[in-house]
Inverse folding.
């Protein structure tokens, strides 16, 4: 990598986020993010380690979520499920290896909040246990989740990605996701906030 390319990458992934963190401390929060449409194109078969099974979790599985981490609180997860949110997981034996949440009602990312149509779903809070990383489990879990949601009549999958989170962007691109828009959320002292669309893609 040339020196100029290395500097540009460092500027995007380190310097700008560091500046934004400093601004947030004094009351000015600036969040650039990407609105992503997932599951648009079929991807090549993804293989992972042996012995994984995939399905939605129930309230009886919340302790597994707590043990897996990161801990969002038992009551919060119960509230999510009772509100109609679904949690999709990957197990190896009796151990929960990966999970992701699906909101069937709302695009619940505060900076771009809106209600969803009956064929849409917002994907968020995905996590794979460190013991199972490096096995292609995260992308396989995502694809299996698409398949299960389609059986429920949900055919349009959305998510949001921090603009500076390059690994997350590469992960979604690997799954055939499409960036629909680059957006910017600005909040001043948590009293005033606006979200602007900087760029849209065809």
């Amino acid at each position: 990598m040339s020196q100029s390319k290395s500097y540009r990458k460092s500027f995007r992934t380190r310097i700008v986020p560091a500046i934004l963190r400093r601004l947030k401390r004094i009351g000015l929060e600036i969040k650039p993010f990407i609105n992503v449409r997932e599951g648009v194109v079929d991807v090549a078969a993804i293989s992972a380690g042996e012995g994984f099974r995939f399905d939605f979790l129930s309230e009886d599985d919340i302790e597994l979520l707590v043990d897996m981490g990161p801990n969002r609180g038992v009551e919060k997860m119960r509230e999510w499920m009772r509100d109609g949110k679904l949690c999709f997981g990957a197990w190896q034996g009796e151990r929960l290896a990966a999970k992701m949440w699906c909101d069937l009602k709302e695009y619940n990312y505060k900076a771009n909040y809106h209600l969803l149509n009956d064929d849409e779903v917002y994907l968020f809070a995905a996590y794979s246990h460190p013991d199972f990383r490096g096995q292609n489990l995260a992308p396989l879990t995502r694809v299996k989740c698409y398949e299960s949601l389609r059986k429920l009549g949900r055919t349009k999958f959305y998510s949001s990605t921090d603009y500076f989170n390059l690994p997350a962007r590469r992960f979604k691109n690997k799954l055939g996701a499409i960036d629909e828009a680059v957006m910017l959320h600005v909040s001043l002292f948590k009293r005033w906030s606006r979200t602007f669309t900087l760029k849209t893609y065809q």
